[in-house]
């Protein structure tokens, strides 16, 4: 076994380099993860079991026009008790859609903090192409 001047073996150094490389890959994958559009989120939810579409916009914006089947759920409504009552299965697929003001990312983070690992950003309504219901 080769020992470097700092007293660490070559194997220990290579193991540490391997862990650092893996961490960098995970960070880069997170940075370049492709964002999906609202239309893609709608298609996934409509063709999947145990999937929900959450619209995190304000109630007035939701009432003015929303995607059929979307549940209006603003971040201020998100208490742990309310979330677990409405979505008891933490393995559910949850796509959160919003707009440039009510960004879905904040709601997704809250869902993930509550244990919903399949909560995802579903895009912005400004980019939606399709019919809306009132």
What does this structure look like?
The structure is a single chain. This protein is of the alpha/beta class and about 130 residues long. About 40% of the residues lie in helices and about 15% in strands.
Strand order of the largest sheet: 2-1-3-4
Structural class label: alpha/beta
Rounded mean pLDDT score = 83
Largest beta-sheet characterization: 4 strands, parallel
Helical content stands at: 40-55%
Question: How do the SSEs run, as a string of H and E?
Answer: HHEHEHEHE
What descriptors fit this protein?
single chain; 134 residues; alpha/beta; four-stranded parallel β-sheet; 5 helices
Quick synopsis:
The protein is built from 5 helices and 4 strands.
List the helices and strands and how they pair.
Layout: H1 10-31, H2 38-46, E1 51-55, H3 59-64, E2 71-72, H4 80-86, E3 93-98, H5 104-113, E4 119-124
